[in-house]
């Protein structure tokens, strides 16, 4: 997918390939401008691909839009509601478009929308618009739902309620594809993650697979200064490193498991070293994301 012309042309999506398994939650992560929203909008049928092949539930999202529409829920960044309509009216209108929608009132209660159901869309806060957009995306009982930044602007309670709802959709066999800038959200909810940069998928896997493929974990020890670091390193897996950035504070970069911790404490006992504190730090999905995409602002 290209924008602009000539020398100013930008490839928003460039040979991107990904597959989503049914009944799973798949997150598409990437820096601003990486091509996430363009990819989602192409799958939703709002953009026609300039090359390549896109299939959603086995159908062409543009040519087969009428057949796909009842089976797919879409949460847009722009909201998708009319400015003058009341929130509750908009949701009831969306429900009326489907043959077997979810009951509206329990959904309103579930997402805490009762307090603003009679408020016009233009007067809603950002978080209220997000909750309405989510409700509109799922009220038709979709087989597949696209969520573009579903918890942006939400307070912690609403964010947690959204997480629970996404997990419930999965338990009912609904396939969810979402974009998010919250790495903890992707790590908590996703069965599979695709990291996108410059219009291409640069890494894919489960959250645990992506984290395991990154930098090693860290153990921080506090004890007396001047330990024989080379001797301690020999007790650790191959490739491990032991540093003493400050006297008495040691950083051990290594794979961490119970056997490694046992060898470290055994070495300390053999060398009459009293450990004052030990802290195990595990890499997160955010750490891996920054390793792959860089720390520079976009």
TrEMBL record:
Name a biological process GO annotation.
Answer: response to antibiotic
Domain ABC transporter, residue spans: 1-223
SMART domains from the xrefs? AAA
On whether Cell membrane is a keyword of this UniProt record, the answer is yes
List, alphabetically, the InterPro entries matched. AAA+_ATPase (IPR003593), ABC_transporter-like_ATP-bd (IPR003439), ABC_transporter-like_CS (IPR017871), ABC_transporter_ATP-binding (IPR050763), P-loop_NTPase (IPR027417)
Indicate how the chain sits in the lipid bilayer.
Peripheral membrane protein
One GO cellular component term noted in the UniProt record for this chain: plasma membrane
Keyword tags = Antibiotic resistance, ATP-binding, Cell membrane, Membrane, Nucleotide-binding, Translocase, Transport
**What one GO molecular function would you report for this record?**
ATP hydrolysis activity
What is the species listed in this Swiss-Prot or TrEMBL entry?
Aeromicrobium choanae
| Localization (cell) | Cell membrane
- This chain belongs to the protein called ABC-2 type transport system ATP-binding protein
Q: Please indicate if the UniProt record lists Translocase as a keyword.
A: yes
